[in-house]
Design the sequence.
């Protein structure tokens, strides 16, 4: 298995808003390997797991990524997870360093599953990812969600695809 390879994605496709339309084909049931995959790490505040001011954090980080010209031209990936009911962390994949942002890497094996429902089902998705890892003979070390579109774009496209990533 080749490290740091994601399923194909066309991020230049015509959009109905700020997010490219996501095609879930090839994302479910994958086993992915990351080896020192580079990310910008950002945190957001939440109230009972509901993010607040997330747009301003993502806008700032995305502007810095664009200024550094380190956005992968063929894909994008933002892995998110709740640290508590009041804080979440987000890993935005990049190809190089980004000034004024926290840089980190992720290494490990991940299994994926695609979900298509309202964001209010996130707790169910977390459970499903832990169950999927156990069914494959693993214990999920960490579970991340790749929210492929913002709520506005999900509504415009009529689909809200979320990809679960369980580190095994």
Sequence:
């Amino acid at each position: 298995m080749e490290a740091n390879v994601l399923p194909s994605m066309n991020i230049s496709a015509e959009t109905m808003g700020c997010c490219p339309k996501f095609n879930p084909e090839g994302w479910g049931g994958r086993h992915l390997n990351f080896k020192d995959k580079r990310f910008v790490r950002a945190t957001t505040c939440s109230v009972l797991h509901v993010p607040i001011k997330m747009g301003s954090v993502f806008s700032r980080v995305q502007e810095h990524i664009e200024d550094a010209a380190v956005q992968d031209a063929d894909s994008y990936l933002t892995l998110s997870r709740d640290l508590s009911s009041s804080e979440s962390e987000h890993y935005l994949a990049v190809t190089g360093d980004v000034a004024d942002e926290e840089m980190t890497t992720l290494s490990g094996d991940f299994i994926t599953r695609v979900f298509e429902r309202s964001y209010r089902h996130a707790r169910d998705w977390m459970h499903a990812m832990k169950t999927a890892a156990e069914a494959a003979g693993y214990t999920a070390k960490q579970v991340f969600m790749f929210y492929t579109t913002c709520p506005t774009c999900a509504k415009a496209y009529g689909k809200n695809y979320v990809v679960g990533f369980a580190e095994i």
